[in-house]
Amino acid sequence: MTVDVSFVREHEAADQKRGGTVEFVVAQIRQRVIEGRLVSGQRLIARDLSEDLGISRGPIREAFRRLAADGLVELTPNRGATIRQLSRKQVKNLFQIRENLEGLAARLAAEHIDEGGNRRTFIEVWEKVRPTSTPLPWHVFIRQNRLYHGTIVSISGNEQLCELIGNLQLPVMMYQIGSAMAPANAAISHEDHVRVAEAILAGNPEAAEEAMRRHLRRSLEWVMQLPDTAFKRKAD
After folding, report:
1. N-term to C-term CA, the chain
2. Closest by alpha carbon to 190, among 162, 161, 219, 167?
3. What is the CATH code of the structural domain delimited by 5-83?
4. Cα separations (Å) of 180 from 107, 124, 231?
5. Fewest CB within 10 angstroms: 41, 75, 206, 214, which?
6. Measured between alpha carbons, how far is 213 from 219 in angstroms, rounded to an integer?
7. Of 196, 231, 236, 227, whose CA–CA distance to 214 is shortest?
8. Within the chain, which residue ranges are assigned CATH 1.20.120.530?
9. DSSP string covering the chain
10. Buried b vs exposed e over 183-202: b needs ≥16 C-beta within 10 Å?
11. Distance from C-alpha of 205 to C-alpha of 164, rounded to nearest angstrom
12. Segment 14-45, tens digit of pLDDT
């Protein structure tokens, strides 16, 4: 049997292009969630995305399935795809997990602050996100908050810890509750960030862990005071 090499290569190229297109759609949806352009509970209409991105609906539906597997999107019969929305209990559970995992990350960051370029990396990020006298729009605050917390995790030196925290779908939760954040909540968060940063830069693991744990406990307190409309009504 003779194999038509040109035919095989053509279909391999088509598969690669399709895969690249799916990745593009996945990246676009993720970015729109991060930017707050897509919010929790919002429906994703394949037709609208197809027209917006100039891509056929096939790769878009495949991107929906991939995002559903990652926990960012929910696929519901007769309703289609929606950006995942968490219940009050799910948000509480996530904060409890974060307190333990990110508390450890802060401890490790303080322990490793003077290794390699960790101190320089952290200071560069801290200079970008440290509080100023100018109030920030909530979506900017959330973006800077993610950068700050993510940098602490990244310099912890524990790859498995980074992976565990990365799998928590924290951007979904933060943008779900971020629009309800009052200026007073942001101010308290800034105060906590200063304490965590000071402990890390001082190379004090115990103080860094306690400051991070306290920060996340205080954040949970105000989040739990939000009205029921801020959460999914029924847990998965």
Report:
1. 53
2. 219
3. 1.10.10.10
4. 30, 29, 11
5. 206
6. 10
7. 196
8. 88-230
9. ----HHHHHHHHHHHHHHHHHHHHHHHHHHHHHHTTSS-TT-EE-HHHHHHHHT--HHHHHHHHHHHHHHTSEEEETTTEEEE---BHHHHHHHHHHHHHHHHHHHHHHHHTTTSTTHHHHHHHHHHHHS--SSPPPHHHHHHHHHHHHHHHHHTT--HHHHHHHHTT-HHHHHHHHHTT--HHHHHHHHHHHHHHHHHHHTT-HHHHHHHHHHHHHHHHHHHTTS-GGGSBSS--
10. eebbebbbebbebbbebbbe
11. 20
12. 443 444 799 999 989 988 877 778 878 889 99
Asked whether the beta carbons of 107 and 206 are under 8 A apart, the reply is yes
Q: At what angle do helices 88-111 and 205-223 cross, to 10 degrees?
A: 160
Residue with tokens 């219940």: 87
* CA atoms within a 13 Å half-sphere pointing along the CA-CB vector of 112: 19
Q: What are 101-115's pLDDT values in tens digits? A: 999 999 999 999 999
Q: 114, 64 in Cβ contact below 8 A?
A: no
Q: Which fold has domain 88-230?
A: Four Helix Bundle (Hemerythrin (Met), subunit A) (1.20.120)
**Could you give the residue range(s) of every CATH 1.10.10.10 domain in the chain?**
5-83
Q: Are 208 and 200 in contact (CB under 8 A)?
A: yes
**CB hemisphere CA count around 98 (13 angstroms):** 25
pTM (2 d.p.): 0.76
Give pLDDT tens digits for 184-208. 888 889 999 999 999 999 999 999 9
